[in-house]
Amino acid sequence: MTTTPAAPLPLLVLGQGRDLRTERGVECPGDLPAPSDPDLVARARAAKAALGDKVFVLGHHYQRDEVIEFADVTGDSFKLAKEAAARPEAPWIVFCGVHFMAESADILTSDDQTVILPDLAAGCSMADMAAIAQVEDCWEQLTEAGVADVTVPVTYMNSSAAIKAFTGRHGGTICTSSNAKTALTWALDEHGGVGGEGKVLFLPDQHLGRNTWARDLGGALDDCVVWDPHKPMGGLTVEQLRDARMILWRGHCSVHGRFTVEAVEAARREIPDVRVIVHPECRHEVVELADEVGSTEKIIKTIAAAPDGTAWAVGTELNLVQRLAKEFPKQRIAFLEKNVCYCSTMNRIDLPHLVWALESLVEERVVNPIRVDEQVAADARRALDQMLALPGETSKD
Ligand code: 13P
Ligand code: SF4
């Protein structure tokens, strides 16, 4: 049998061109300082001092130490967006994180402020797993299957602004890893709650959706189906869709998806009295075996509050785990899985890019601004505001 080869995917050399089909552009105009420049730290300090209150630097917990050193505030994705919104006096917000976070900050800041992402190649592989055309197509098929009326979209912060806007247009909410339980409860409430008839279309992280449903809400795993955007009808039958309560988008984090059951078992074997703590983007079987599960903020707070001498095996991004080990030397902190590497896109933001962005601002030149289309931003804001209105909303743990 002969098959027609698929059209080759366009390959972009990092730092050149722009891929509009993914959630981030890839472009880095201008000359970057050399990573070997011994004056980088001094240059970053001088540029920040020259800019004073005109710039506010936000750093996600997964950023490199060399970048975190220059952050005015650190936090998880939504805490950082709220921090950005709380600084109306700073015309420039330099976002040291990934593209979807900078987009959310742009949506939540005023029109007079500009959000800057020091390297546009800092995307998120999970966010890239759901393209807006695929999501619109999915909704159309859910409508044809007669289930859209009882389905509420719940979209993880780790998604493009276009998908947040889709969520706003269809009466859904955004969630973070810290409030996913509240968001799901809210979404299901309209059709009889957890035991009722309503459904959630959970985008784009299947693991966070499954973990929240099964672990936090006590739902059955059998109630979850996975929508594969590359298959007709998501690879599901109408009957499967009708029976399901959670329609999970087939997306995952390429970093957290690599933590394994074997690694948890090895940690328990090798480290006496170890406590295993993981991010809810990890696979369900890993989360089930952990002692604690939570967002980056929760992981930090839990470890900070533990008595000296506690042993931890931590399943989240390596920059954060290494920093925790340095900050809490009286606790014994290990990385859960030896085969997991840094989040490569988070690591795109390095000191040369930060220096380049700051020094450009000193010269009144804005590089890599993140500007979400006005209509998209208005619809996305509805879904973000819905999250803020959730009972007891907190992005802090
Ligand atoms: P947090 O919101 O918990 O910081 O997580 C963001 C993220 O990208 C995790 O991979
Ligand atoms: Fe995206 Fe995973 Fe990196 Fe978080 S750790 S930014 S979810 S790829």
TrEMBL record:
Alphabetical GO biological process terms: 'de novo' NAD+ biosynthetic process from L-aspartate
What Pfam families does the record tag this protein with?
NadA
Look up the EC number in the record and give it. 2.5.1.72
Keywords of this protein's UniProt record, alphabetized? 4Fe-4S, Cytoplasm, Iron, Iron-sulfur, Metal-binding, Pyridine nucleotide biosynthesis, Transferase
User: Main subcellular localization, coarse class?
Assistant: cytoplasm
Which metal ions or organic cofactors does this protein require, according to UniProt? [4Fe-4S] cluster
The biological pathway it contributes to is: Cofactor biosynthesis; NAD(+) biosynthesis; quinolinate from iminoaspartate: step 1/1
Which residues does the record give as iminosuccinate binding sites?
60, 77, 156-158, 177, 279-281, 296
Q: How is the cofactor bound?
A: Binds 1 [4Fe-4S] cluster per subunit.
User: Which principal EC class is assigned to this enzyme?
Assistant: transferase
Q: Which InterPro entries match?
A: NadA, NadA_sf, Quinolinate_synth_A_type3
Q: Which GO terms describe its cellular component?
A: cytosol
Entry binding sites for [4Fe-4S] cluster: 124, 253, 343
Q: Where found in the cell?
A: Cytoplasm
Q: Which NCBIfam families match?
A: nadA, PRK09375.2-2, PRK09375.2-4
Role this protein plays: Catalyzes the condensation of iminoaspartate with dihydroxyacetone phosphate to form quinolinate.
| Protein name according to UniProt | Quinolinate synthase
Organism per entry: Knoellia remsis
Gene encoding this polypeptide? nadA
